[in-house]
Structure formats: structure tokens, C-alpha cells
Design a protein that fits this description.
Elements lengths: L13 E3 L2 E5 L2 H12 L4 H15 L9 E8 L4 E7 L9 H6 L18 H12 L6 H14 L1 E2 L2 H9 L1 H5 L2 H7 L11 E2 L2 H20 L1 H12 L6 H6 L3 E3 L2 E5 L2 E5 L7 H10 L12 H21 L10 H4 L2 H8 L24 E7 L4 E7 L9 E2 L4 E2 L3 H5 L23 E5 L2 E7 L5 H16 L3 H6 L3 E4 L12 E4 L5 H9 L4 E3 L10 E6 L2 E6 L6 E4 L1
Parallel strand pairs: 17-18
Antiparallel strand pairs: 1-20, 2-10, 2-21, 3-4, 3-11, 4-7, 5-6, 8-9, 9-14, 10-11, 12-13, 14-15, 15-19, 16-17, 19-20
Length: 545
């Protein structure tokens, strides 16, 4: 495996026997580690870390976002998944948006938001899988403290706020918090959000009841209504997380689990099924053939997602067919080994078938948690609910389409297909790897690249997390469709690989080193030792105890 001389890995893996927390921000990792050292389990630690991330990475996640979890429960020897995504307003019909002049869903403002699922997900996970030693109030205390008294802005966070400066300036409630003095904070400057501290305290004391049926819910709905939104108290009161068995497939003897739709983690599972038909040598990292094959597998899996997946409460999804090895074998035959596909239809079914943040944690008991939470785009809808400090997501705007008859067309009470996808891999019935990354449509692509590097190439965990990545654009985001395919490649791939891909017909766009937005985190378990890896593309770290 050859990596261009222009790329250098920079971090050492973290080893521990008692537990590890890996997140995109050091303050969040520290909060999770403190919980582990006080006797909490991996779920407790993940929730404390997630609470802090919603404050110190405010553009990525928070009370106004959604959450998906996949975890291994050691006491039961069983994997679980949790869907913490919210629904569209009951007034949100395709006809309403079209009649109001929208050709596509609006991606900012109150019309782009769906019901946030993160708070109920936290309470559900803690009640079902927490250690019983920590209350929600205790786990949210670090987040409350950072919001009330401020935190030094990390380097990447400063960059991301600066990049969003023009958008934030359009919303006075957001600008008051993030553009004080008319500018974005610089790295190292202290940023506080006292309104958010009060909202976090209200959730800490009143839980999901306060957020979905209490005064906080009423304040969110009232602001949204006054600023052109459609959410009402009814949608908040009706919200509930769902716990289910993960969907899964196998890849070279390893079982890979993820959340069921509306998460689109099924894209990665179908990609792996297609790639299993090629040898590990053909998928050797960084070669022209390996990149080409994985890119083409992505195109096929995404075409199937766009054609067949929607909210399973409202759409009949042929998931058993799409994730079968037989279907993958048929899809594999659509790949031209020497030429890039430019038109990719969905696969034929048998006649019978009618900016995000990721963290992972492990503990001494053998629990392993894969946790992803998000506002969707950076800063979500862009508009803070004035007086609460809460930034709502823009999941409805980013996820739904207005294409009539499409399985992911917006409808009252419907949940959009969701880019959030946590992953858990098992070997011989035991947890082996939890991994994931933020990055919207990049998630299934980057997670597949890292997983293949580990499984097919035996690459060490930290190296697989750091190595250069490619992104095949577009994928599922309705805002980017239709568009011709473009292959965006970070610096570090061998020049002969890039030239070979261009010769195959790939439209390659060269990026700088580590220029993709993903911040992958990973924890593996083997022989009683955990290994943690954290992506230098973000400010975070893996820490062990």
C-alpha cells in the first residue's frame, strides 16, 4: 500500500483496558472520561460527551438536533439501535410548499426544521442502557457549565463559525450569540451562551417532558410560528424515540450493524455486499482499481436508496431484497471495471416486491457505544430560538424532496431519510469495532473506505482514520440533485492513482490535505484491550482510563 509522500499521519492510537471515549472535541472527550472514572458506563459517558459537544461545537449538534445510536449491551450479549429523529409538521404538505413558490425545500429558517429528537434520545438511552449511577442532570452539568461560563473556542470551531458568518448575520438571534461585535470569535477566545445554559438546566430538571410538552416546547413553537415556521405543539407532544434491532450484513466474516431507516446506513451495508464480490487485493488502499470499485459501488447503493427508501411508517421498503447477497451480486455486474458510470439507475426488484458530530465510547464491562448526533447542515436552520440559545436543525429542508410520488417526498408527520448512521462491527458474536463520522453524504463513503482499509488491508485503526479520502459527489441530498458525478480527492493519493481514475472517465477534483469535513472517531476491542482513534480533521481526541 503506497501513500503519496505528501501525506503524513500524525497521531498515535490510544490504548486502554478500562474504557475509552473518542469525540470531535477535547472538552467533550474529557467529560466522557470523567464519567467513566466515576463508575459510569459507556452510555453515561457518551451522553455527557454529547451534551458538551452541543455547546462547544454549536454548529454541529445540540438540543435542536437528532440522534442515532447503535450499541453493544454486554450484560445481554446483544446489539441495539435507537432512532432519535423527528417528524415534519402536520401542515407540511408538498402542495403547501409548491403553492408558496418553492421548487425545492428551503434549507434555512424555520421552514427547514423538523421536530428535534436528541433530547428524547438521551433520556431513552439513559433509561434503557445507562449504569443507573448517573441522572440526566448530572450528565448535563459539564455542558451547562460551559454554556453559562464560556469555553475557549477551538481552532476548527473558529474556522466553521467564520465560514458561516454571512449566513448567521442574517438571523439577529444567532448573530447576537456567535457574532458579538459583528465578527466571529477567534480561536482561543471565550464564547458563552447563557440562554442555552438555562435551556439545558430546564432539560436537566424536567427531562423530555419539559422539552416536548413543557414551557420550553411552547417557547420553541411560538418563536417558530412567529418566524414563518409550521411546527406546532402537537408535533412536539407526539414525538418518541424508537428502539429496535439493528439492520446488518456480513463482510468477510465480520457482522456490520447500523440503524434501520429512516437512517440511510443501509447504503454502507449494500456497498459492502457489492464489494465482497471482489478480492481484498483488488481493494488494496489507494490503488486506481480500489478507488474505482468503491466509487462505483457507492453510485449503485445511492441510486437504490433514492429509489426505494423512505420513512418505513409510510413507505413499503424492500430492505430484505436490497441487503441480500443475491441482489448485491446482480448490482455488482453493473460495474464496468474499466470505466466510470455516468448514468446509474436503481436496481430492478423481483416482481413480488410491491454539520453532524460523531462519538464512540467503551467501558470496563464490555459495552460499546456508537453515537451520532446532528443539526444537519452547519448551524442547522441557522436561526437560534431567541431567549433559549437553541439552534434548531434543518433536517426537513436538507432531507425531503418535493418530487411528487418520491418515497422521500415531504408529507405531514413524516420523517425524512436521514444521513446520520452509526456503525458497530462484531466478530464471532463479540463487539469488535465502533466507528463513524459526520459529513452528510460523505458518511457511507468515508466509513466504507476506512472499514475496507482495516478489513481488506490490515491497516491500523488510527492510520485508517487519518488516511486520505475521496468523496463521490453528488449522492442523496436533494439540494444537489441532479448533477454530474465528480470525484473529490484529498491530497495524499499517489499521482498514478489519480491519473488512472481520470483515464477511466472520473471527473477528478483535487483537494488539499485533510480537506473533507468528516471527523471520524473509532474504538476497537481485542484481547481485553481497547484501541481508540480520533481524526485530526477536527479538534477532538480519544482518551482512555
Amino acid at each position: 500500500m503506497v501513500v503519496s509522500a505528501s501525506f503524513r499521519t500524525g497521531r498515535a492510537p490510544v490504548f486502554s483496558r478500562r474504557g475509552i471515549v473518542a469525540t470531535g472535541h477535547p472538552l467533550a472527550s474529557a467529560a466522557g472520561l470523567h464519567v467513566l472514572m466515576q463508575g459510569g458506563n459507556a452510555v453515561d459517558a457518551a451522553l455527557a460527551a454529547a451534551g458538551v459537544l452541543g455547546v462547544v461545537q454549536p454548529m454541529m449538534s445540540g438540543l435542536g438536533g437528532d440522534t442515532f445510536i447503535v450499541l453493544w449491551r454486554a450484560a445481554e450479549g446483544k446489539a441495539y439501535a435507537l432512532n432519535g429523529s423527528g417528524a415534519a409538521p402536520h401542515a407540511a404538505t408538498r402542495e403547501w410548499f409548491v403553492s408558496h413558490g418553492h421548487a425545492k425545500m428551503p434549507v434555512r429558517g424555520m421552514l427547514s426544521a423538523s421536530v428535534p429528537g436528541a433530547v428524547d434520545a438521551m433520556e431513552t438511552a439513559l433509561g434503557a442502557w445507562g449504569s443507573g449511577r448517573s441522572t440526566l442532570a448530572q450528565l448535563l452539568e459539564p455542558a451547562i457549565d460551559y454554556a453559562a461560563h464560556g469555553f475557549p473556542v477551538a481552532s476548527k470551531v473558529a474556522e466553521w463559525i467564520h465560514e458561516a458568518q454571512d449566513m448567521l448575520a442574517g438571523f439577529p438571534s444567532s448573530a447576537r450569540i456567535y457574532l458579538r461585535g459583528g465578527r466571529a470569535p477567534r480561536a482561543g477566545e471565550v464564547l458563552a451562551n447563557p440562554d442555552l445554559a438555562r435551556s439545558l438546566r430546564a432539560v436537566a430538571e424536567g427531562g423530555a417532558e419539559e422539552f416536548y410538552r413543557g414551557d420550553l416546547a411552547r417557547r420553541i413553537v411560538r418563536y417558530g410560528r412567529d418566524h414563518g415556521g409550521l411546527l406546532t405543539e402537537r408535533e412536539f407532544a407526539e414525538h418518541a424515540s424508537e428502539v429496535h434491532d439493528p439492520i446488518r450484513t456480513t463482510y468477510r466474516g465480520t457482522t456490520v450493524c447500523t440503524a434501520a431507516p429512516p437512517s440511510q446506513g443501509a447504503i454502507l451495508l449494500e456497498m459492502l455486499n457489492i464489494l465482497e464480490g471482489f478480492s481484498s487485493d483488488e481493494l488494496r488502499w489507494g490503488t486506481t482499481r480500489a478507488v474505482h470499485l468503491i466509487v462505483e459501488a457507492k453510485k449503485l447503493a445511492v441510486a437504490d436508496r433514492l429509489a426505494y427508501l423512505g420513512d418505513p411508517r409510510m413507505v413499503d421498503i424492500p430492505l430484505e431484497v436490497l441487503l441480500s447477497k443475491e441482489y448485491a451480486a446482480r448490482r455488482q455486474r453493473a460495474i464496468d471495471p474499466d470505466r466510470a458510470l455516468t448514468q446509474v439507475p436503481a436496481g430492478a426488484l423481483p416482481e413480488a416486491v410491491g454539520d453532524t458530530t460523531y462519538l464512540c465510547a467503551a467501558d470496563r464491562e464490555g459495552n460499546l457505544v456508537s453515537f451520532i448526533t446532528s443539526l444537519s447542515a452547519s448551524f442547522g436552520c441557522g436561526e437560534v430560538i431567541d431567549g433559549t440559545g437553541i439552534m434548531l436543525n434543518n433536517r426537513a429542508g436538507r432531507g425531503f424532496t418535493l418530487e411528487d410520488g418520491h418515497p422521500n417526498c415531504i408529507a405531514p408527520g413524516k420523517r425524512t431519510m436521514h444521513t446520520l448512521m452509526p456503525f458497530l462491527a462484531l466478530r464471532e458474536g463479540a463487539p469488535w469495532l465502533a466507528w463513524g463520522t459526520p459529513g452528510g453524504d460523505g458518511q457511507p463513503q468515508w466509513n466504507t473506505q476506512a472499514f475496507s482499509a482495516i478489513v481488506d488491508g490490515g491497516i491500523p485503526l488510527q492510520t485508517a482514520v487519518e488516511w486520505p479520502r475521496w468523496t463521490s459527489f453528488p449522492a442523496t441530498d436533494p439540494a444537489n440533485l441532479p448533477a454530474p458525478f465528480e470525484l473529490r480527492m484529498e491530497a495524499g493519493f499517489p499521482d498514478e492513482t489519480v491519473r488512472g481514475l481520470e483515464a477511466m472517465g472520473h471527473d477528478v477534483r483535487r483537494l488539499g490535505a485533510m480537506q473533507t469535513v468528516g471527523g471520524m472517531q473509532a474504538v476497537s476491542a481485542a484481547d481485553g484491550v481497547y484501541t481508540g482513534a480520533s481524526d485530526p480533521r477536527v479538534d477532538g481526541c480519544a482518551v482512555g482510563c
